[in-house]
Amino acid sequence: MTTPQWRQRSPIDQQAALKAISASYNLKGTLSLQGNSFSCDWFKLVTLDENYFVKVFGAWRIALKCASCLDECLNISAKLAETGQMSDIVVPLKTNDGNLTVTGEFGTLVVFPFVEAKTLADVKGWDCTADLDLMRTLARLFAQLHTATIPRKAQPNCNSMVHDVSFIDEWDCCLSTMQQQQNWSRSTQQELVSLMTSDDVVSLVQSAIERLLKLQTHLLDTCPPSEWCLCHTDLHAANVLYCKKQKHNDTLHNHHHDPGTDNNDERVQLLLIDWDDVCWAPAECDLRCFTESNTGFTQFLDMYKELGGKVDTLDTNRFEFYIIRRLVVDLIDWLVRIIWENSSSDTDAEDIKEVRDWSIMGLRSVEKDAQRIHQQLTNYNQKCARV
């Protein structure tokens, strides 16, 4: 097995990015780094007239994966807004040439209007079913998305098959490296090795991968592509902006009239962001985010069904597939960052906490969660049959 040429994540060349923004958008200003994710760094662009949000996908592993299909994914989100099928999304600005991305020595960048808002996670926490008013708004958004009639072309390149499990090879590479490497440059990397190479954790991950492969077969057998719908695929509370209701704005496409309410009974609006991985998939790919609550999930399904979503074919095994898939994908992303891409112990420590508290804990509870979802779906279907 050959180790891929993963490399340390380096800072974005901001001057090169500013030059490209000036040439492609006629925007001149300053960039300030606001944060980063697995795939990109994001910046605030301040100009004399207004501010913008800029995402830059650099030359590291997952950024290159995302950039390979970014135009296709962003074009789908733009088409949803242009056709009026979804109004509560933030779409990117077009370049002078009518494109949605710009590529250069810095990587690939996208410019969005800047929205003064916090995320739903910041305001309400990570449970998307904790607030009934906001849950109804989310149910409406995803019913709209899953029933959208955008012409279906080829799947975006980077996740052309949302049932793909080829990332398993990257787990083998990470595990082999952790087991064989002797001299780590940072003590936090050694901490990771102690955690991840224990017999208990290795067995846990291997068992999850074996289960994933079985569930993949079930998915392919029971849900042909003809039954798939358009999915966001990266739904969580940090990808939903929570902001006060704004007046009609064609750039944001946020002209709906069904906002939720916050604790002061003020009108608020939810905007879906981060459309980098949109594609056609089984609805369970998105709806898994709502399964974490013991009671909120069935309430969400009632709302989703009432607003046009299809619930009669939802399948426990497909939910389990997407839950495990997300946990394993995130685990591998964190491992790659810590082993090859990070440059500081502080960043390592943050990522190791996510490995321990999200990935490992999540994998330990998958079987129990699947049983709970199965019971919820059974009870829900029986209730629907009686109506």
Blueprint of the fold:
Blueprint: H1 14-25, E1 29-36, E2 41-47, E3 51-57, H2 61-67, H3 70-82, E4 102-104, E5 107-113, E6 118-119, H4 120-124, H5 132-146, H6 168-180, H7 187-196, H8 199-222, E7 229-231, E8 240-244, E9 260-261, E10 267-272, E11 279-281, H9 284-287, H10 296-306, H11 316-341, H12 345-364, H13 366-386
Antiparallel strand pairs: 1-2, 2-3, 3-5, 4-5, 6-8, 7-11, 8-10, 9-10
Helix pairs in contact: 5-10, 6-11, 7-12, 8-11, 11-12, 11-13
Number of helices: 13
* Main sheet characteristics: 5 strands, antiparallel
Q: What's the N-to-C terminus distance?
A: 57 Å
Shape descriptor: globular
Overall mean confidence score, pLDDT:
87
* Secondary structure: number of strands: 11
Ranges where pLDDT stays below 50 over 5 or more residues in a row are 246-251, 253-265
Strand order of the largest sheet: 1-2-3-5-4
Tell me the radius of gyration.
Answer: 21 Å
Into which percent range does the helicity of residues fall? 40-55%
N-to-C SSE series? HEEEHHEEEHHHHHEEEEEHHHHH
From the structure provided, what is the oligomeric state, counting identical versus distinct chains? single chain
**Share of β-strand residues:** 5-15%
